[in-house]
Structure formats: structure tokens, C-alpha cells
Specification:
Largest sheet: 4 strands, mixed
Number of helices: 9
Number of strands: 13
Structural class: alpha+beta
Distance between the termini: 22 Å
Strand order of the largest sheet: 8-11-9-10
Strand content: 5-15%
Helix content: 10-25%
CATH topology of one domain: Muramoyl-pentapeptide Carboxypeptidase, domain 2
Order of helices and strands: HHEEEEEEHEEHHEHEEHHHEE
Length: 351
């Protein structure tokens, strides 16, 4: 059972200040500050706008902090929100991973309640279609909420190196976990450290077609990054380029083991895109996403399982709106979740 924590007056004051201190977004405003201040999603049809590293999304839903086959890490960041398709996939993936012999998923950042650039961390994760999964397994006894803020993820790289994967840290179970993630048709990319991709190339036998989705990228030695494609109902979502054919164990992978990817850039350091990105840089629809109200039931926020993270309260079953084909929010993803207290995708797969 998850340990309950005591909410202080300061925490409550900070939350409600963030909820109430909203206003129209100006073109010159820094997008990271506006989206980073949002505590709850918008009441709208689920829709992603823009690209993974320059956009936002409406109608987001939350992954509960604790599930039977997953735990959300770093809950104070309030980044356990995503497009309903992303949240549904994570829940299904967690169940399938357990069936495969993995103890359960430790889920890192997904997105902010309304997406957009973050004040710290990722360049992507902006349109609700990205999620980080730790390579560390879920423990048999759930971590406390305080513990989830401090416990570090376990790197699969040999300490002190950037290229060589320590054979003692590698286990075929990681390949099975990545293969399961790649098995879902909606998943388009899985980012891992180049050394992990190389280990897959050296050890996977038989079916290797799924490895096409596993792409090398800087970092990603403690977690892997799952990305799904633009979803139906999001005409403003910009898709990424195809990965082509093959298992990715070619010259494109060999490049990562040259000096070029790791050579410091010449000239003065450039500012991070998120630090200079204004609202004018994002799709125009993102201003409407910021200005949109939260779901009516979310105005009376509750706290999931006693945690210090505010989540949206679900409406009672009798008050739930009946979908209407002519209503602008007919695809609203909020549904009754009285035990969890967060808006979740409807229908919920496997339940």
C-alpha cells in the first residue's frame, strides 16, 4: 500500500496559485513558463498540435501514480499526463511486460498536463505522445512517494564509459522488454543509448524486424524512450520521418562509435530551444489550449492516494456527459474513475 503523506499549507497554496494565476498567452511569453505552470489538462477532445519538440496537446489524461503493474517516478514533476492513446498503451505495456516476466514498469516523464516545452529536461515530450520507461524493474513493495523522488535509475553502461556496455549489467530480459514495446503498431520509435542498440545487434537472434524501431540516441542509458505516432483526430500533429527498412545495425549505428557524435560543438554555446521558445514559436492552437478551462469536475481538485500531486477529480457516473456526434467535445476522454480520481482513457483496454 502506498504511504500517505501530509499536505502542507504551502503545497496547497502553491497548487491553487498555479491553477488560478492563468491568463491569455501573449506571443512573446516564454512557452515553458506558461505550460509549466499548468496543473491540470484542458477540457477538450484529445488532440496533439505541432511536433514532438514544438507543440502541445489538449484533452490530456493522467496515468495514476500507482497501478497494479506500474509506478510513476518523480511524481512532484506532474508529468504523468498524455494523449489517451499514450496512457492506454502504457497500461497495456505494463500488463504485457509482467506477463513476459518483467516485475512491472517504473514510468518516468510522459508530458505536462497540456504539453508544451518544459522548464527543465526534455526537448520533446510536448504533444503527449512520448514516455520514458526506466530500465530498473518495479519492486515487489511499492516505493513510497518520497522514495520515488530520490531513488535513482540504474544505468546499463559500464561506469565511467560512454561506449562499452558492461556484460555483467546486461540481461536478455532487457531485449524482451524492448521487443514488447516495439510490438505495438502505434509505437514508431524507441530511443536507447547507442551502446544498448549495439548490444541488441550483437545478441538478438531470429526475428530482428522489431529492432528497426529501436534507434540510438544520446543519454538513454538508464531508461528508454517510447514514442507513438500522430493519432486520429489530430490533423495538426506533424509526423516524423520513417525509419526505413532494416534492423538499424548498419553504418548509421557505426557513426555513434566515432568521435563525431561526442565532439564538443565549436563556438559559443547555443541556448536550449526550450529556454527561448515563445508562444509565437508554437502552433497557434496552443494558445487556445492554454486558455481552455479544465474539466468542470477538476475545479474541485483531489489528491490521489494522499500524494502531494494534484489530479483532476472525475465526475460521478450519473453526471457524465453522453457523447453527441454534433458536440465539439464528443471525444472527451474523461470518464468516471472514483477509486483513482484521475481522468483516464475510455474505453480502458483489458478491463
Amino acid at each position: 500500500m502506498v504511504r500517505r503523506t501530509t499536505l502542507t499549507a504551502a503545497v496547497l497554496a502553491t497548487f491553487w496559485a498555479g491553477v488560478l494565476a492563468t491568463g491569455p498567452a501573449a506571443a512573446s511569453d516564454l512557452a515553458k513558463d506558461l505550460f509549466g505552470a499548468e496543473k491540470l489538462p484542458s477540457a477538450a477532445a484529445p488532440q496533439s498540435f505541432g511536433f514532438y519538440s514544438k507543440g502541445c496537446f489538449g484533452g490530456g489524461v493522467g496515468l495514476p501514480l500507482t497501478g497494479p503493474t506500474w509506478e510513476v517516478m518523480r511524481p512532484s514533476r506532474n508529468r504523468n499526463w498524455g494523449h489517451p492513446a499514450m496512457i492506454a498503451l502504457l497500461e497495456k505495456f505494463s500488463r504485457d511486460a509482467v506477463a513476459d516476466g518483467w516485475p512491472g514498469l517504473l514510468v518516468g516523464d510522459i508530458s505536462q498536463p497540456r504539453g508544451g516545452p518544459m522548464r527543465t529536461g526534455h526537448a520533446s515530450h510536448q504533444i503527449g505522445l512520448d514516455a520514458d520507461i526506466w530500465f530498473s524493474p518495479m519492486p515487489s513493495t511499492p516505493y513510497s512517494l518520497a522514495g520515488r523522488e530520490k531513488i535513482g535509475a540504474r544505468s546499463l553502461l559500464e561506469p565511467g564509459t560512454t561506449h562499452v556496455l558492461d556484460d555483467k549489467r546486461w540481461d536478455p530480459v532487457y531485449a524482451r522488454l524492448l521487443k514488447r514495446a516495439a510490438s505495438y503498431p502505434e509505437v514508431e520509435r524507441i530511443f536507447v543509448n547507442p551502446a544498448i542498440k549495439k548490444k541488441l545487434c550483437e545478441t538478438v537472434v531470429g526475428d530482428r524486424a522489431w529492432m528497426n524501431k529501436v534507434r540510438p540516441f544520446w543519454g538513454h542509458d538508464e531508461h528508454f524512450h517510447v514514442r507513438i505516432g500522430c493519432q486520429p483526430g489530430s490533423p495538426g500533429c506533424k509526423p516524423q520521418q520513417s525509419t526505413g527498412r532494416g534492423d538499424g545495425c548498419d553504418k548509421s549505428l557505426a557513426w555513434w562509435f566515432t568521435d563525431e557524435p561526442w565532439r564538443p560543438a565549436k563556438g559559443p554555446a547555443k541556448p536550449r530551444a526550450r529556454d527561448i521558445m515563445t508562444m509565437a514559436s508554437l502552433p497557434q492552437a496552443c494558445r487556445a489550449v492554454l486558455d481552455a478551462p479544465s474539466p468542470p469536475s477538476a475545479q474541485a481538485a483531489i489528491f490521489n492516494g494522499g500524494s502531494s500531486m494534484p489530479v483532476a477529480a472525475a465526475a460521478p457516473a450519473e453526471a457524465a456527459p453522453v457523447p453527441d456526434a454534433g458536440a465539439p467535445f464528443a471525444a472527451n476522454a474523461f470518464a468516471e474513475t472514483p477509486k483513482i480520481g484521475v481522468p483516464l482513457p475510455r474505453p480502458r483496454p483489458g478491463s
